[in-house]
Write a structure and sequence with these properties.
About 70% of the residues lie in helices and about 0% in strands. It has helices at about 10-30, 40-50, 55-65, 70-90, 110, 115-135, 140-155, 160-170, 180-205, 210-235, 240, 245-250, 255-260, 260-280, 290-300; strands at about 100-105, 105. It binds geranylgeranyl diphosphate (GRG).
């Protein structure tokens, strides 16, 4: 079993550096404006910047490093993934979905602005993400740009996050078995993480076997992440998570904790992290930061 070791100073530093670089990149893509529609830009910046662990951008930067990708290109894709993730959080918080007032320790976008602005801010982030991927600065080879666009569309669309979110909403009125919960979470959370990990390999034109290893790591890690999310929902301090506790139970959702109990859920998360790390062995120790990230997911309190 993996040990519950402290977050290493190297990982902490690398996560902070990624957050800083990604925020700078997003700010360049979403500049302040005095156009009459400035409120939309403000809401998009508000929903993306300042807060969040930046796990997905970190996955992009680290996987890109494995294949010697130009960090400026990797940063653009890292910003893209964070924009798509932020869009999903903005829409997830809307009254029609999770109806959450708080996100990342501050008012959710629809509370800080209004519902229509939150819908448009999410739409704006999702579409901007694809626009950025289509630009030659992302990669000079149009085949690589197309591959990135296709992979992100599949990760975020009906076979991925959007489909997973639909299942999640259905799950409020139906009791899902463990297999269906796992499929839901793989779609809702795992697929975008898999894109984040695979993106570096796509940018670096790496072999399919490396891509497969990174995706397998991401799926196991994504599931472990979701199991810990379910555990945090029942036991975490809202001042750390930035959102109220027991949301899943209130919404009547079947989770890993409600289905298998907290202790078994914790063991499952540990097993998944161990499995995720095993997929990285093909990199012969060069993916140490991704290994550290897997341990971090197990320990996280937010
Ligand atoms: C609305 C299309 C659409 C999809 C929403 C991902 C998602 C689907 C909703 C997020 C709701 C949620 C709490 C999911 C649990 C796992 C998860 C993705 C948590 C948030 O990710 P973190 O912890 O967030 O990486 P930060 O704030 O650190 O970026």
């Amino acid at each position: 079993m993996p040990s519950l070791r402290e977050t290493s100073p190297e990982l902490k530093e690398a996560l902070e550096e990624t957050a800083m670089l990604v925020d700078k990149t997003v700010m360049r893509m979403l500049p302040e404006t005095d156009l009459p529609e400035a409120q939309l830009y403000d809401a998009m910046r508000y929903g993306t910047l300042g807060g969040g662990k930046r796990l997905r951008p970190f996955m992009v930067m680290q996987s890109a490093k494995l294949f010697g990708v130009d960090p400026a290109r990797a940063r653009r894709v890292a910003a893209v993934v964070e924009m798509v993730h932020s869009y999903s959080l903005i829409h997830d918080d809307l009254p029609a979905m999770d109806n959450a007032d708080m996100r990342r320790g501050k008012l959710a976008v629809h509370r800080a602005y209004d519902e229509a602005t939150a819908v448009l801010a999410g739409d704006g982030l999702l579409t901007l993400a694809f626009e950025v991927l289509s630009e030659p600065e992302t990669h000079e080879d149009p085949n690589v740009r197309c591959a990135l666009i296709a992979a992100l569309a599949s990760a975020s669309g009906i076979q991925g996050m959007v489909g997973g979110q639909m299942l999640d909403l259905i799950g409020e009125n139906e009791s899902f078995d463990l297999g269906t919960i796992s499929r839901l979470q793989r779609m809702k959370t795992g697929k975008l993480m898999a894109f984040a990990c695979e993106a570096g390999a796509i940018l670096g034109k790496a072999s399919d076997s490396y891509k497969r290893a990174l995706c397998s790591y991401a799926y196991d890690l994504g599931l472990a992440f979701q199991v810990t999310d379910d555990i945090l929902d029942v036991e975490a301090d809202p001042s750390m998570t930035g959102k109220p506790a027991n949301q899943d139970e209130k919404a009547g959702k079947a989770t890993f904790v409600s289905t298998m109990g907290k202790e078994q859920a914790r063991q499952r998360a540990e097993m998944l992290v161990e499995q995720a790390i095993r997929h990285l062995h093909v990199f012969q120790g060069r993916a140490i930061m991704l290994e550290e990230l897997a341990h971090f997911v197990l320990r996280r309190r937010a």
